[in-house]
Amino acid sequence: MPQATGRADATRAVVFSPLDGAGRAELVEQRLTDAIVSGVLRDGERLPSESELARSLGVAVVTAREALVALRDKGLVHTKRGRDGGSFVTHDRDATTRMVDERVRSLSRIELRDLSLHYAAIAGMAAEIAADRASEDDLASLIEIDARADLATPGGARRAMGRFQLEIAAVSQSPRLVHEELRLQAEAGPLLWLCLREQDSRDRSRAARLEVIEAVRDVQPERARRATTDHIASAVEWLIDEKVRLEQAAAAPAATATARHPEGARP
Amino acid sequence: MSVDVDVTAEHITRRIASTIDPVFAMIEGWRDVLERELAGPYAGALTGDGEPTAERLDPVVAALVSGELDREGSLITGAGFVAAPGFLADAPWHLAWWLSGSNTFGPGSGLRRLSTVDDPDSEQFRDYTTLEWWRVPARTGTRHLTGPYVDYLCTDDYTVTITTPVRVAGEMVGLVGTDLYVARLEQVLLPVIRESGHPCTLVNASGRIVASTDARRPTGALLRLEGLSEALAPLRDAVTVTDAASLPGGEAVVPCGDTSLALVLEA
Fold first, then answer.
1. Could you give the ipTM of this predicted complex?
2. Do the beta carbons of residue A146 and residue A137 sit within 8 Å?
3. What is the per-residue pLDDT across B220-247, written as a single tens digit (0 to 9) for each?
4. In this complex, do B222 and A174 lie within 8 Å of one another by their Cβ atoms?
5. Which of A138, A153, A173, A183 should we substitute to test contact with B (largest number of B Cβ atoms within 10 Å)?
């Protein structure tokens, strides 16, 4: 009973909680950082102006400016003055790799699994409904997206993944699933699809896509869902393995130092 | 057991057609204005002589569509002209599309222009000639009703789009069209189809449900009935059918005028 009371209070409290939480500049900064380091925004690409950015993200102009300054400090964008001026993406491979690694290390396993679970709930349901609702035309456009996928680069594989998942959500005929898919692509995509750095994972992502396409063709909702959620589960497993590798690499110098002391050495 | 297509069914399909016919008539009126402007004795009356340009045509399109978009209680939420690639001298790819104040997409309120990416080299660019609302009227030469679909490229909502070709000397130089929210359409059509007293479902030419009296037949799902796809085939080719068909399962399929929609009355 006390628990039930607590629950009722919590649902009520949510109504009056801040709409977007604090730190909107950080949210904008994180969103753009993720897009740059994952290759969704390309090297040299011009970002929207401060006011355009503010309008499209629904934040104040000073918030957008603050985020751009932070990105400049991180070395992810540079600013040119004058008529052809603006903020441009700078994609420095080493710097971005370091930044992604730092992000993976800073999130706990629990957070990573929870994020992937949330994404699997959305993408899996979208695939299930899409398999039931796809017309011949819808199937053709899914096949087309797969055929155009560039699997030779991580960025190409990422973009193909994003497009395919978005199309699946659209085929489900649910505006809400489309919204959620887009939101989660921005939030979870850069982490979850880190595995696409490896050719092996890129080939597996293609195999998963073909499995979903076949399930849609044969109107097998359960199979479409399973193929989607299995793929996401294997992506998060790769990510957690990668996190372990990164943590071990960071701990390695210390371990070597300990090993030099005789008392630290095993017999 | 089969359903007799009685006077009631014919009456209902006529009322459905008469709900949508004014929208057809409206965009055909826009088409006539643009065709007169682009060729013949009155060519250039509004925009001046010379090659057609986006700069001169856009204000004409805006003037055509803004009245209905602004009208209180209007069914439409977006409208405009889309040029065939290469037709306009100053804009190889061009959408002159306006959104009404009731359109919840994007920033701002009131009548506003849809912003699009017209640079084919951009990552965001989408070749609109591959989309159903362009492809089908380009093939059949006549108007087409696309959807219901989630319009994630433009307005992010659950939409029906009606488009019809604009021709100069027999060549399609673009099309005019309009968007309707499916939710609004359902609101208007549901009371009409309820009058039959039969369980009945309104579908588009692909068998996708637009509205149904049966709660187990959700809008957006495909109505899967034996023989339905064959019965709807003429509607997909923009052939006007007036006769009702009966399906092996006893259902009756009654075309709604030349809207390309059909009413399915279940046994």
1. 0.85
2. no
3. 999 999 999 999 999 888 777 778 899 9
4. no
5. A173
